[in-house]
Specification:
- By secondary structure, the protein is α/β, with parallel strands linked by helices.
- It has 29 helices and 26 strands.
- Helices cover 48% and strands 15% of the residues.
- Strand 2, helix 4 and strand 3 form a beta-alpha-beta unit.
- The chain is globular, with a radius of gyration of 30 Å.
- It starts with a helix and ends with a strand.
- The structure holds adenosine-5'-triphosphate and magnesium ion.
- The site of adenosine-5'-triphosphate (ATP) has 19 residues, from helix 3.
- It is an enzyme of class 5 (isomerase).
- This is DNA 3'-5' helicase.
């Protein structure tokens, strides 16, 4: 049968064992994600399972989208009555809660608001202020992360407070903020990201009928990237598989890289404990990478102790060596990467290339270098569209259109664009809201009804009230895109930007236009409305920005999980950057960094570059950098050194070579057996090899250098021919030399050699 024809035996077993729990444990590139897609198609096409009974969980929205496309193409031709649900855990929870949250009996209603991380941090800020803490001393960001961590470990505010040691002031403060934060969320009918999971698990635990409903609905469940699920997600899966256990999870413990977000490798162990008769299937053939890349990856990760260990082989060719480059400084590193990318694109304009780094901040130099050469790229992560201030402003208006009691949203835009509602008035609103235990919206109503306060302030508040009320009315009958337009135009937002008249304001206007486009797309979807539009915007993550069709992609190693590229650069391989400084003193963290290294290396299909710089600016100061310890964990014989001059790698090799140099040897009839004479031996032998190389190079020199070929210049080193102009003695040649840029040379006098 077609669906199974393109699978190996173990993959086939994982696809066709549809009944009962299945755990697929396998290394990178072994086809785990492929198994999930095929299994969905198989369930539908071969087992006749109604698509509506199938739930597949992916790690990102983007991965969900791709999975949907894959399944569709596998099922091409068959007409489906319904679609399987393919979504992230968070989207799944939103779906469940939008239907059933009221059954929790905690006062939440189905039109709850979702607070993303940025909202959560702002709410924490408000709480800090209200409790009289100094924000300089307690950072809102770190408190938000402490709260999130607690929630993910199953602690609520009370439990957290109960565990604070009596002299730990910082945690005592966090406990107080935590309590107020939760109160505010509840009062605002809002859930943060963690709550989405927590409330869903609570709901399914408490309400047997709802649990049964979803058990009956999702009869077949599949989970990709299982190694990165956390305890709550595992609990959710358990609750959904209470009645039947047709569950297939796939994962790789060596790729668990989200421990800092609460992911728990023990979920893999727990799986075997909880699902006693689970079938465990191992996939051992890697289809993605060359043997060399796979060897490099396996070698690095074998330094970890906390792993089960597994075999991974490939029928792919050995492939090229791993390419290594040491740059004198970070700028030269970026230039090398950009110039090398240019070479690849000249040779193959359709090449797909990724530059992977540890943190988003590292992208800047690479962007600049690529821009200088005019190479288009996409950047994933960092400042995403939905994080831009103007987009968030309009989203705040939209949230108010659905729920004017959302005080956090209201606070954000009450005087954006400026409408004469000053700091004092806002403080007054806050105070009144606190006094009456209501929302800012209610406080504003009280103030405008009573009409006390300064007349101008009251007039401004009335104007604001009318604006929001109009949006609320519109949202009840108009499609999402209409409300978005109104939020941009009727609020005066557009006018204010136009009045600025700067280039930056124009760019912001263009972003808002893009937001309207997104809403129009949403309106065209089945069941899509303003609510769904806002849900999707709230749940978007960095990795979702990735588009498969771009030639060059810059992204963090985390965001690259699950993806593959023919050519990959891993950059900034320096201690303190990668592995991250935090890992220096903590073995568990170091192991997590090493898994990240394994993930990064295994994204590469054919060619892998590893680069690092000897100097790098940190907070504006030039500091010297040590090569990453992961470099020395690689099998050195698999690496080709592209650095100019002496590199860390060449020294490392020399020192290893030195160790076995003491053995006496014979060369051309002479014995070399002392340290000095051995050095002499190498000088002679190398001189000879150089001569032979040179002779071979001259012999093979063609009449002219064609674009796309490599040349070597006495001063600039190795470079790529971009263009030739003219012929004969006057022929000029344009060559790009990594680190030096493009040079136009007269071919005859340039002393070029083929390289
Ligand atoms: P990761 O651990 O990185 O998520 P994975 O185990 O999910 O990797 P896939 O992405 O499913 O691996 O597969 C890796 C590559 O190998 C893909 O290009 C996929 O199409 C290919 N592949 C997997 N199995 C087969 C097969 N049986 N025949 C041909 N190609 C395959
Ligand atoms: Mg995968």
């Amino acid at each position: 049968m077609d669906l199974l024809a393109s699978l190996n035996e173990q993959q086939r077993e994982a696809v066709t064992t549809t009944e009962g729990p299945v755990l697929v444990l396998a290394g990178a590139g072994s086809g785990k994600t492929r198994v999930i897609a095929h299994r969905i198609a198989y369930l539908i096409a071969e087992r006749g399972i109604p698509p509506a009974n199938i739930l597949a969980v992916t790690f990102t929205n983007k991965a969900a989208e791709e999975m949907r496309e894959r399944v569709e193409s596998l099922l091409r031709g068959s007409k489906l009555a319904s679609a399987p649900l393919i979504s992230t855990f968070h989207s799944l929870c939103v779906r469940i809660l939008r239907r059933d949250i009221e059954a929790l009996g905690e006062g939440y209603t189905r039109d709850f608001t979702i607070y993303d991380q940025d909202d959560s941090i702002r709410l924490v800020k408000n709480c800090l202020k209200e409790l009289g803490y100094d924000e300089q001393r307690l950072s809102a960001r770190s408190i938000q992360s402490a709260i999130s961590h607690a929630k993910n470990s199953g602690l609520d505010a009370e439990m957290f407070a109960a565990r604070v040691e009596y002299n730990d002031e910082r945690r005592a403060a966090i406990a107080r903020v935590f309590r107020l934060y939760d109160e505010r969320l509840r009062a605002n009918n809002a859930l943060d990201f963690d709550d989405l999971l927590i409330k869903t698990v609570q709901l399914l635990r408490r309400c047997a009928d709802i649990r049964q409903h979803y058990n009956a609905k999702f009869r077949y469940i599949l989970v990709d990237e299982y190694q990165d699920t956390n305890a709550l997600q595992f609990a959710l899966v358990q609750l959904l598989t209470e009645q039947q256990q047709n569950l297939c999870v796939v994962g790789d413990e060596d790729q668990s890289i989200y421990k800092w977000r609460g992911a728990d490798i023990t979920n893999i162990l727990n799986f075997e404990k909880h699902y006693k008769d689970a079938r465990i299937i191992r996939l051992e053939q890697n289809y993605r990478s060359t043997q060399n890349i796979l060897d490099a990856a396996s070698h690095v990760v074998s330094h970890n102790t906390e792993r089960k260990g597994k075999r991974l082989w490939t029928a792919n060719p050995t492939g090229e060596k791993i390419r290594y480059y040491q740059a004198p400084d970070a700028e030269m590193e970026a230039r090398f990467v950009a110039a090398t990318i240019q070479e690849h694109l000249v040779n193959d304009p359709r090449a797909r290339i990724a530059v992977l780094y540890r943190t988003n901040a590292q992208s800047r130099l690479f962007e600049e270098a690529l821009r200088r050469l005019g190479i288009p790229y996409q950047i994933v992560g960092g400042f995403s569209f939905y994080e831009r201030a103007e987009v968030r402003d309009i989203i705040a208006y939209l949230k108010l259109a659905l729920n004017p009691h959302d005080s956090l949203a209201l606070q954000r835009i009450i005087n954006t664009p400026p409408r004469g509602i000053g700091r004092q008035t806002v403080d007054e609103i806050e105070r009144r809201a606190r006094d009456c235990g209501g929302s800012y919206w209610e406080a504003i109503s009280i103030m405008t009804e009573q009409g006390d306060g300064r007349a101008r302030a009251i007039a401004a508040l009335k104007g604001f009230q009318q604006t929001i009320t109009r949006l609320v009315t519109l949202a009840q009958r108009a499609p999402a895109s209409e409300v978005v337009k109104a939020a941009i135009i009727d609020t005066g937002y557009e006018l204010a930007l136009k009045a600025e008249g700067t280039e930056e304001a124009d760019a912001r206007l263009a972003n808002l236009q893009e937001l309207v486009n997104a809403a129009v797309e949403y309106d065209a979807r089945e069941g899509g409305g303003l609510r769904e539009f806002l849900d999707a915007a709230a749940l978007i993550s960095d990795a979702d920005q990735y588009r498969h069709d771009a030639r060059v992609t810059l992204m963090t190693m985390h965001a690259a999980k699950g993806l593959e590229f023919p050519i990959v650069f891993i950059v900034g391989l320096e201690d303190g950057i990668f592995p991250h400084a935090r890992a220096a003193a903590d073995r568990a963290e170091l192991e997590e960094e090493r898994r990240l290294c394994y993930v990064a290396i295994t994204r590469a299909q054919r060619i892998l570059y590893l680069t690092h710089a000897m100097k790098r600016r940190v907070y504006g100061e030039e500091l010297s950098a040590e090569p990453s310890q992961f470099l020395s964990e690689l099998p050195l014989e698999l690496i080709e050194d592209l650095s100019r001059g002496r590199s860390w790698l060449s020294l490392k090799r020399a020192s290893i070579a030195l160790e076995d140099r003491y053995a006496p040897r014979r060369y051309q009839g002479k014995t070399y057996d002392s340290v000095d004479s051995i050095a002499e031996f190498f000088r002679r032998r190398n001189a000879r090899t150089d001569q032979t190389d040179r002779a071979a190079a001259v012999a093979s020199q063609p009449g002219e250098f064609k674009p796309g070929t490599h040349v070597r210049h006495p001063k600039y080193g190795r470079g790529l021919v971009i263009k030739r102009e003219g012929t004969g003695d006057s022929a000029k040649i344009i060559v790009n030399f990594p680190g030096y840029g493009q040079k136009k040379l007269i071919e005859k006098y340039a002393n070029l050699e083929p390289a």
